[in-house]
Amino acid sequence: MYEGVVQDLIDELGRLPGVGPKGAQRIAFHLLQADPVDVRRLADVLLEVKAKVKFCSTCFNVAEDDQCRICRDPRRDATVLCVVEEYKDVVAIERTREFRGRYHVLGGAISPIDGIGPEQLHIRELLARLGQGDGAEVSEVILATDPNLEGEATATYLTRMLSPLGLRITRLASGLPVGGDLEYADEVTLGRAFVGRQAAT
């Protein structure tokens, strides 16, 4: 334990996701040794982010305006909607440069053990979006939830809710990673790879 404000800094940094006690301590001491101008710049950016960044009123991605840049972009394919759990998933998909449609960010996944049900996610807004306005032109919904228990539960629930709308509902393919070895693949991943196998070209 350190004294006063140093321990307060370590405690606050330790509350960040992915930062344990040792990592929080390393960051704290890095900040203590850093140039005051650099620390001030970091503090200013943190305050500016909290003041300026909000969530898109259409898709719930991060945005500085009422709508995010993807929802405002008329070049995006409005007939395909990709449903993701978190806004960081939007960034991951955008990096592939393979998807040119629009997004809907749920804000998490169904996880009864964590007290997260459909009511805590942006599912109601998804259904409303598909039933009116720009959502009326959507013909395919891609469910890009994580391939874990919570993601699968969310995808199953969404499939049940969206089926009556008559849309094409697809799920991202899953299986073996490029460069992976069969002997190290778990049974679920290997099983999905067999189910999702494609013709050799």
UniProtKB/TrEMBL annotation:
<dbReference type="Pfam" id="PF21175">
    <property type="entry name" value="RecR_C"/>
</dbReference>
<dbReference type="InterPro" id="IPR015967">
    <property type="entry name" value="Rcmb_RecR_Znf"/>
</dbReference>
<protein>
    <recommendedName>
        <fullName>Recombination protein RecR</fullName>
    </recommendedName>
</protein>
<keyword id="KW-0227">DNA damage</keyword>
<keyword id="KW-0863">Zinc-finger</keyword>
<dbReference type="Pfam" id="PF13662">
    <property type="entry name" value="Toprim_4"/>
</dbReference>
<keyword id="KW-0233">DNA recombination</keyword>
<dbReference type="InterPro" id="IPR034137">
    <property type="entry name" value="TOPRIM_RecR"/>
</dbReference>
<keyword id="KW-0479">Metal-binding</keyword>
<dbReference type="InterPro" id="IPR000093">
    <property type="entry name" value="DNA_Rcmb_RecR"/>
</dbReference>
<comment type="similarity">
    <text>Belongs to the RecR family.</text>
</comment>
<dbReference type="InterPro" id="IPR023627">
    <property type="entry name" value="Rcmb_RecR"/>
</dbReference>
<feature type="zinc finger region" description="C4-type">
    <location>
        <begin position="56"/>
        <end position="71"/>
    </location>
</feature>
<keyword id="KW-0234">DNA repair</keyword>
<keyword id="KW-0862">Zinc</keyword>
<feature type="domain" description="Toprim">
    <location>
        <begin position="79"/>
        <end position="177"/>
    </location>
</feature>
<dbReference type="InterPro" id="IPR006171">
    <property type="entry name" value="TOPRIM_dom"/>
</dbReference>
<dbReference type="Pfam" id="PF21176">
    <property type="entry name" value="RecR_HhH"/>
</dbReference>
<dbReference type="Pfam" id="PF02132">
    <property type="entry name" value="RecR_ZnF"/>
</dbReference>
<comment type="function">
    <text>May play a role in DNA repair. It seems to be involved in an RecBC-independent recombinational process of DNA repair. It may act with RecF and RecO.</text>
</comment>
